[in-house]
Specification:
The protein is built from 2 helices and 5 strands. With about 120 residues, the protein is of the alpha+beta class. The chain has a domain of about 45 residues: Roll (SH3 type barrels), CATH 2.30.30. Strands 4-3-2-1-5 form a 5-stranded antiparallel β-sheet, covered by helices on one side.
Length: about 120
């Protein structure tokens, strides 16, 4: 007496097992494509910019480190950089920890290659 026709119709319907996969596959591909363009691609472009910034680093550049300290580059090695954070205070910093180059310095003279 209180049963609605909707409940009576739902009991007889059966879903096909292969039909759900065929309808979900395009939606999953669209979701992966959106995730690539909104998350993966911008992150890889940002990493490429950071790598180029570190490759272009030179003496007398003012840099910001990941710790928030600001200093001037005094010497560049393969994986490390010597940064002057105060007058006469030099610290060795891993290149990857440099987050920003604020002021570009002038190139070092050619005869000063030993530093």
């Amino acid at each position: 007496m209180f049963a609605t026709p909707a409940f009576a119709q739902a009991a007889g319907a059966a879903a096909t097992p292969g039909g759900d996969l065929i309808t979900m596959l395009p939606m999953m591909l669209i979701l992966f494509g959106a995730m690539y363009f909104f998350m993966i691609r911008p992150q890889s472009q940002q990493a490429k910019k950071h790598k180029a910034m570190l490759a272009a680093l030179k003496r007398n550049d003012t840099v910001v480190m990941s710790s928030g300290m600001i200093g001037k580059v005094t010497r560049i090695e393969d994986a490390e950089v010597m940064v002057e954070i105060a007058t006469g205070v030099n610290v060795r910093v891993v290149k990857a920890m440099i987050t920003e180059v604020r002021v570009k310095g002038e190139p070092a003279p050619a005869n000063d290659a030993k530093n």
